[in-house]
Amino acid sequence: MPLVTAGLRSVLWVLAGIAALALAAIGVWGILAHTGVVRVLGLVLALAAPAAVLALYAAAGMLWAACLSLALWALALATARSALPSGHTASEQTATKAPRHPWVLMNPRSGGGKVGRFDLVDRARAAGCRVTLLDGDQDVTELARQAVAEGADLLAVAGGDGTQALVAEVAARHDLPFLVIPAGTRNHFALDLGLDRDDPAAALEALADGVELRIDLGYAADRVFVNNASFGTYAFVVTDPAYRDAKARTTLRTLPGLLTGEDAPRLRARADRTHIDGLQALLVSNNPYGRAVDAAHPGRRGRLDSGLLGVVCVRVGNAAQAARLVRGPGSGGGLVRLSAATVVVEADTDTLPAGIDGEHVVLPSPVVCRIAPGALRVRVPRRRPRTSPAGDGAADWLGVVRLALSSPRTR
After folding, report:
1. Which of 328, 230, 234, 226 lies closest to 287, judged by CA?
2. What is the pTM of this model?
3. Residue 146 to residue 174: CA distance in whole angstroms
4. Is the pLDDT of residue 256 over 50?
5. Which among 5, 112, 157, 180 counts the fewest CB atoms within 10 Å?
6. Based on the number of CB atoms within 10 Å of its own CB, is 103 exposed (0-12), middle (13-18) or buried (19 or more)?
């Protein structure tokens, strides 16, 4: 579209747009890694660079073409993803019989009180479950172990991902089916299982009419994670007591010291045979994510049974590296993505703070992260709204071309 509108000059406009993104990235680096005047200048640059390019586009009569091109590109991505076969979370096996003694742990405070709002206690009991309410002082793992000792043949959790992981470990250890009720705040695990996060009670349908998935579990030292374990800047930020009540303010206050200060964490990682050092942040996930934005919003996983950990490494020490991040993982910038069966994380300290499925823990260094393929039996409803979490991944353009060139009889 820009080529039709402005001819060969459109190449210059594209380069101007890329330059604006790079300058905006430098501005964001100034905001995050510095304080005082440099932070103010970074804010100005982050806002002014894109605004200046938009003004140039408008002055040249190119703004409508640029916006239309972006809209067409977004439509092409959506069409490409919908045209290709859907991904899968894990292979399904028909659950032949309903559990006779299901046990459910519920956190009444999780997700802003979803347990009460959706009447989950009464609904679970009506479905034949024994319900235990978490009051905040109990040992979650011990409660699950006690339930198994008393004859539970299915373990379930209505709560956040951190609580899900603790009970999932007990279920995996005893080879019992595990049921996820998405009553947490974000429910990333439930999302990747295809569950309806807006209707937590719908997960209880799996008791009478469900299928089983065999999925992997991740381990950081001796801690299980169903989503991810994060190290470095994010893990340090969440250690601050003020983070839970003032996330943005606490992050802006603590990040400069963590990114450029004397106490900035410098991590080293070994992912199978790949060695990477000088890292500020590291995300290790139970199966790779389709994209990675940050530890709190890392995207979705195309599958949960690949037998591999996803690894996202961030190494940004200056504004130039921040600008190169705009060009993506293959640009030689500070973002590295790969997959591995084992990841060893270490630093020049005896311990490492980590975020395990959003929960802060301190682990002895080095931390060995590994994956246990097919360790967990997850019971899910036979009919669930989102069975393909592959939509956040990059489109397979080669697959699109093959699909477009194939004859109707081969489709």
Report:
1. 226
2. 0.70
3. 12
4. no
5. 112
6. buried
3-state class (DSSP) for residue 370:
strand
Q: Which residue has tokens 């067409």?
A: 72
Distances from the Cα of 145 to the Cα of 89, 165, 334, angstroms: 27, 14, 43
Judge contact between 231 and 354, C-beta under 8 A: yes
Share of the chain above pLDDT 70, in %: 65
Q: What is the dihedral of CA 167, 170, 172, 174, to 10 degrees?
A: -140
* Residue 114: half-sphere exposure toward Cβ, Cα within 13 Å: 20
Strand-strand pairing, 351-356 and 274-279: unpaired
CA distance 380 to 205: 8
Q: Which two tokens stand for residue 225?
A: 């994670």
- Over range 51-57, report the average pLDDT: 78
Would the pLDDT of 225 be above 70? yes
Classified as helix, coil or strand, 112 is helix
Provide the terminal-to-terminal Cα distance of the chain, rounded to the nearest Å. 31
> How far is 192 from 207, CA to CA, in rounded Å?
19
Q: Could you give phi then psi for residue 355, rounded to 5 degrees?
A: -105, 110
Give the model's pLDDT for residue 317. Answer: 59
- What is the average per-residue pLDDT within 30-34? 63
Is the separation of the CB atoms in 223 and 358 below 8 Å?
A: no
131 close to 124: Cβ distance less than 8 angstroms: yes
Q: Which two tokens stand for residue 194?
A: 């295809």
In contact, 218 and 285? CB cutoff 8 Å: yes
- Please name the residue that has the structure tokens 């290790």: 284
**Both structure tokens of 267:** 């991590």
Q: What token pair was written down for 336?
A: 């590295």
